[in-house]
Every structure is written in C-alpha cells, then in structure tokens.
Amino acid sequence: MRTSAITSFLFVCALTLQAEDKIVGGPYVVAPAARSATIGWVVQTGEVKAGARSIPVLRSEKISLTGLKPGETVNYTIPGGLQGSFKAPPAATAAVPYSAVVFGDTRSRHDLHRRIIEAIAKLNPEFVLHTGDLVTDGYDLEQWPRFFDIEGPMLRKTLFFPALGNHERNNARFYEFFDVKSPYYSFDWGTSHFVILNSDLGNVSLSASARDAFWAEQQRWLEDDLAKAKSAEFRFVVMHHPPFTAVKSRQGDAPVVQAMVPLFEKYKVAAVFAGHDHNYQHHLKNGIHYVVTGGGGAPLYPVDGPIPGLTVKVESTEHYVRLLAEPGKVKVEAIALDGRTLETFDIQR
Ligand SMILES: [Fe+2]
After folding, report:
1. Local structure of 299: helix, strand or coil
2. Residue 149 is part of which domain span?
3. Do residues 236 and 270 make contact, with C-beta atoms less than 8 angstroms apart?
4. Strand, helix or coil at 349?
C-alpha cells in the first residue's frame, strides 16, 4: 500500500509521568475489537528491597482507541515520548492480503529471544500471535520488564495476541498487561478467523470442579464461536498445549486438548498453532494442520517421537512461523533463527 493511501494520525496521550516513574514495558497494542484497540505500557513506580533482591513495583496503563477506520495506520506517542504504530484490522469481510507471525516459549535464553524478535520485527507483520510461556514465572515481577525490553522493537510496530502458557501460572498480570478480559477469545482479520484458547487447565483453579466447569464453558464457547465463524475463509486456533507432539516423553500428556480435535474437524479448522514443546513440528490429520512453534528462546526439546501417518516435518531449532495470506490461500513459512526456511506449505480454501 502506498504511504499516501494510508490514513494516518498522531495520537498523543494527555497523561504525564510522575518524576520517579519509568516506563519498563511497551508501548504495545492489544485486543482490537472491530473498530477499537488498546495501547498499553507498564510503569515502574518504585522497588521493594527483599534480601538481595530488588522487586519492581509495576503499574499497568492503558488507553482505548475507538472509531478506527478499517486498515488505517495509527501512529501514537505515549507519555515520556515513546512512539509506536499499528495497522487497524481490515473490514470483517474484506479478502485482503495480510502477513502475521506466530511464535512462542520465550521464557529463557534471552539472547536468543532477542534475536528472534529482531528477525520478526524486520518482517513488519500486521499482527503477532504468541503461543504462550512468555516468561518463566508470571508471578515474578522482575521478569516482565525484561520480557518487554526484549520484545519492545516488535511490539511498537504491530498488534499482539498472546495465549496463556503454563509458565504464566494464570497470574493476574497477564490479564492486566494485555487487557485480556477472558483467556479465550477470538478476532477476525479480513476473512480469517482466529481463536485463542486457554489450554493451561492445571492453573485455572485448585478445585477440580472449578477446572471442570471452566473447561466445559470454554468448550461451549468454542463451539459457539466456530459455528458463528462458518463463513470465514479460514479458521485458526492458537493455544499453548499441542494436541499432538513428536516429543516422546510428552506424548499423551494433554488428553483434554486432544479431546478438542473432533470439534476442530467438525468446524473445518484450517490449522492449530501451539507451543509448550520447544521445537518446530508440523502434523497433518484429517485435513487440519497442527503446528508446534515453541522455538522462541526456551531450551530446545528433542523431536524423537514422530507420529506415523501424522508427522510431516519436525526440527529442534529456534524459529518462528510466518503467515502470508492472499484471497483463497494462506502460505505458512517456518523460518529458523539463522534464516533457513524449515518448511513452507499452503493452506487452500
Ligand atoms: Fe509450556
């Protein structure tokens, strides 16, 4: 798109920072509804000394933007002068091309995480989906500023859709920072429909009956959501735990997630993207692509248990996955940190 064709405006927040405050996260843009988006940033207002540790006191700030025009580029400046930009989602039924990135498991080996982010930022994706395990411990406030520092160059130029991983431990900060009202949600980008699920059942509650109730409600919501999205050209699901894995020691670990497969098949989901296993995996079952993209920095896992008849490609390496959509087709590219193409495949309507 030519620059002249892009509607652009500068959004300057009227808020100011207190003298002792410093921004340690963001800006980033999350949770866009059809015509709105939320610009967020994280402020450190002080620190607590506990033994040898200095624990930051963090405050989450958010601004809602409403009345966005489909596809417009929005430039913004937050208090303190940091700037960012993003492209608003296109009209719901517009069969427009788009580029997106899916990646995950960024919780450790921060040098590699940083290099992955630099590579993704160069691609200028319109939005980024994170398959979860953003940090090692969602309760540890020292880890969030590091996460935001590393992801900053990417977050300032895209829209961000995170899934909840087990390492977030269902902590309130995940919801607060990313303006997540529910750990399962969905959005449309043109004629593609994306569903983000919370597969981390173990951290939902200490109570077994509360976990059962959560899962039943998420299943009910998922079926309803997929049924409403029947006219979408492509339906994609993103969640942390993979239904199928080539990591031998983890096979059979997620029966509840595997039990969702009939629903994915009933509503002709095009692809399911997961993380949790720190490698790249591509399985194909009854026309649905199951991709594991957990190569964002966490220690690599072996791919020692390919599934006969299902596994298409596996490799234990740091990587990210790029989606390039055009009307009728989405091209999926798995790209290693060294720039090598691990695999490409097309999803046809
Ligand atoms: Fe995980």
Report:
1. coil
2. 91-348
3. yes
4. coil
CA–centroid distance, residue 169 to ligand 1 (Å): 10
Torsion-angle region of 61 (φ positive above 0: left; ψ -120 to 50: alpha; else: beta): beta
Ligand 1 centroid – CA 28 distance (Å): 23
> Is residue 106 in some structural domain?
yes
Res 95: pLDDT: 87
- Residue 301 Cα to ligand 1 midpoint, Å, equals 12
- Output the CA 14–ligand 1 centroid distance in Å: 39
d(CA 135, CA 276): 12
Centre of ligand 1 to C-alpha 76, Å, is 34
Q: What is the structure's pLDDT at 18? A: 67
Provide the domain count of the chain. Answer: 1
CATH of the domain at 298: 3.60.21.10
Which residues lie at CB < 5 A from ion ligand 1? 133, 165-166, 276
CA of 2 to the centre of ligand 1 (A): 41
How far does the centroid of ligand 1 lie from the alpha carbon of residue 214, in Å?
A: 19
State the distance from the centre of ligand 1 to the C-alpha of 238, rounded, in angstroms. Answer: 13
**pLDDT of 7:** 41
Distance (angstroms) between ligand 1 centre and the Cα of 15 equals: 37
The three-point CA angle 45-48-53 to 5° equals 125
Q: Which residues pair with 126 in a beta bridge?
A: none
Predicted TM-score (pTM) above 0.90: yes
- The H or E element containing residue 216 is helix 208-228
Instruction: Look at the block and give the residue holding tokens 């999803």.
Output: 347
- Residue 39 in domain: no
pLDDT, tens digit, 9 for 90 and up, residues 217-261 = 999 999 999 999 999 999 999 999 999 999 999 999 988 999 999
Rg (CA), the chain: 20
Q: What would the two tokens of residue 104 be?
A: 């995950």
Cβ atoms of 278 and 300 within 8 Å: the answer is yes
Helix or strand (DSSP H, E) at 210 = helix 208-228
